[in-house]
Amino acid sequence: MRLQHCLGCGTCQHPLRPICVTCGRHRPDEVPAAGTGVVDSFTVVNRTGEPFVLARVRLTEGPIVLTHLTGIPDPRCDQPVRLVEGSDPPVFTGRKDTGSDDGL
Amino acid sequence: MTGVAIAGAAECDLGKTGRTILELQTQAVTRALDDAGLTLADVDGIATNGISRFSATQLADWLGLQPSWCDSTFAGGAVFEMYVARAAQAIAAGQCRTVVISYASDQRSARSRRLHAVYDEGTPEAEHEAPYRPMYPISYYAMVAQRYLHEHGLTRADLAGVAVAARERARRNPAAWTYGLGPLTADEVLAAPMISSPLGRLDCCLVTDGGGAIVMTSLDRARDLPKKPVEVLGYGEALTHTGMATAPDLLRTGAIDSGRRAFERAGLVPADVDVVQLYDSFTISVPLGLEALGFADPGAGLGATVPHNTGGGGLAYCHPGQLGVLLLVEAVRQLRGVCGDRQVPGARTALAHGTGGIFSSHATVILGVDR
Ligand SMILES: [Zn+2]
Asked: What residue ranges define each of the domains in chain B, with the CATH number in brackets?
């Protein structure tokens, strides 16, 4: 999962764009995401086929991404999650809260 | 005060009509003009969408009009409140004299309602949302609802009360889809099939045909027409996002800014409003909207006491894909005092708030009886 980090204002953004939408600087640097975050919110979607958990995950770097949660039987808002290595499209699963997200 | 008024308002046939969009549009426009004491020959401005790719020119052609002003901005169900603002400006500036704002849908008869998103190639949503198969728009509202319940320590049963109350109001509106269905219980709402948790089928607006129109002209001219004019006192709007992951705070919707701008323009505060018509696409939209517009503190919207959605709203009266024009029709009728069993006694100031997309666009209109 790729993010952009702006050297002008320090903001991280997703999705990738030609400019930083916080300060307007052109071509912010592309950086890999740490792959950790917390669940902002989620919904169990009952479409045709197996239900799945759609979620907004607030990444440690700041941006929010739309994703699925996997392997979490009873998801809750604000719960810490991590990127499932090698998943495509990227999905998230539970992780122990180390407290390292605080203040970010 | 804008010096511009709504002189006529009407619904087309609602429910399951078996009629085409243009037939329903014709009903809406001609009934609103009749209500205003005007005819098609008076119309020199139109605002509409949802007919075809070039909706305004399509409607003009269909009705034999060659207007000097049009608007066909496309921003979801909030757009009719935006048209009111644009029309008020165009009339005040002298570009046109009589504007009809109209909308109609045949979505129930045509079975054309989709529950998934349509992604335009090359957009970030096509790349970053489509692979996750959200239902559109409900999955976004569901995530808002989940966050709302989490932050305020509430449950699905609390939200169910919104659907119960909407049905109760629709039972006083003979035009409502659910008019004859009897009361709804919270247990029925909770037992309905889950669509996108925590929202079940009865947390969702109806899928019906329907639509309506309003006629706008200068307040001075409206005073010479048969019905009591309803003045446009203020308006405001806000656009916030199109992607499901863009909004930094799901509970801080554009209604906060849209409402504040409308109140500032009108020189009024929420306590001045007698009746609210709020876009209730889903149960969550009601408490969150009433809070954003200043009628309740954050988390207290379920207990707001301001009379709202008096006709039953999108949950229980009619939801033709875009509800915005019907919010205006009910607001006008409340201010005229013609709402019978559901009339808010002595209503003199009304607020209509439209929402489009996934809480993407917001527009607020404040209306008042001519003083
Ligand atoms: Zn920047």
From this structure: 4-110+207-369 (3.40.47.10)
Nearest to A66 among B197, B199, B245 (CB): B245
Which structure tokens are listed for A80? 């810490």
Q: Do B143 and A41 touch (CB under 8 A)?
A: yes
Contact A44 B195 (CB under 8 A): no
Minimum-distance CB partner of B132 among A15, A67, A78: A67
Residues forming a β-bridge with A2: A32
The predicted complex's ipTM stands at: 0.94
Enter the tokens of residue A70: 């996997």
d(CA B64, CA B62): 6
Record: contact A46-B248, CB cut-off 8 A: no
Q: How many helices (H) and strands (E) does chain B have?
A: 13, 11
Nearest CA-CA distance, residue A53 and chain B, Å = 9
- pLDDT surpassing 50 at residue A22: yes
Report pLDDT for B134. Answer: 96
Residues 93-152 of B with CB under 8 A from A: 124, 127-129, 131-135, 139, 142-144, 146-147, 150-151
Cβ–Cβ below 8 Å for A41 and B146 = yes
Instruction: Supply the mean pLDDT for chain A.
Output: 93
Tell me which long-range contacts A1-10 makes (C-beta under 8 A, separation of at least 24): A1/A32, A1/A33, A1/A35, A1/A65, A1/A83, A1/A90, A2/A30, A2/A31, A2/A32, A2/A33, A3/A30, A3/A31, A3/A32, A3/A33, A3/A59, A3/A61, A3/A63, A4/A28, A4/A29, A4/A30, A4/A31, A5/A29, A5/A31, A5/A61
Q: Is A99 a residue whose pLDDT tops 60?
A: no
DSSP state of B242: S
Return the H-helix or E-strand segment holding B99: strand B99-105
The candidate with the shortest Cα–Cα distance to B84, out of B208, B265, B254, is B265
3-state class percentages of chain B: helix first, strand second, coil last, to nearest 5: 40, 20, 40
CA distance A22 to B269: 32
pTM of the model: 0.96
Which residue reads 């989940």 in tokens? B146
A43 and B146 within 8 Å at the Cβ level: the answer is yes
The average confidence (pLDDT) of chain B is: 96
- For residue range B230-278, what is the model confidence (pLDDT) as tens digits? 999 999 999 999 999 999 999 999 999 999 999 999 999 999 999 999 9
